[in-house]
Amino acid sequence: MDLTQFKCQRCNKCCEQPGDVTLRHGEEELMAQFLGLDTRDFVNQYCDMPVKPRLILKENTNQHCIFLTKEGCSIYAARPSQCRDFPLKWIAPTSFDTCEGLQKLL
Ligand code: SF4
Ligand code: SF4
What we know:
Strand content: 5-15%
Order of helices and strands: HHHEEEEHHH
Number of strands: 4
Bound molecules: iron/sulfur cluster
């Protein structure tokens, strides 16, 4: 399998999977700026902190990411590095079951 041939199919399955999207230090400021929010308001509205000091994005009740819409990620230009890095820099054990781009490489 040649990951350099990976092409995202915009299926949004990665954003629908349960599991933490953890922010790197400072990413909350960039995301808040993108949304025109004060950083503290952004954190209160969109983040949880189950393990200090790391922020994770909240999920909707269906376990989809809080920023996932029918049109895709509503903060795509400011999405966290965890999202940008998938799947070229990290893959979960279930990624091949869900990611349509990875399935095309099999
Ligand atoms: S921030 Fe955007 S790209 Fe990342 S999981 Fe949420 S909807 Fe998907
Ligand atoms: S699951 Fe894979 S193909 Fe689908 S949007 Fe995410 S990265 Fe792209």
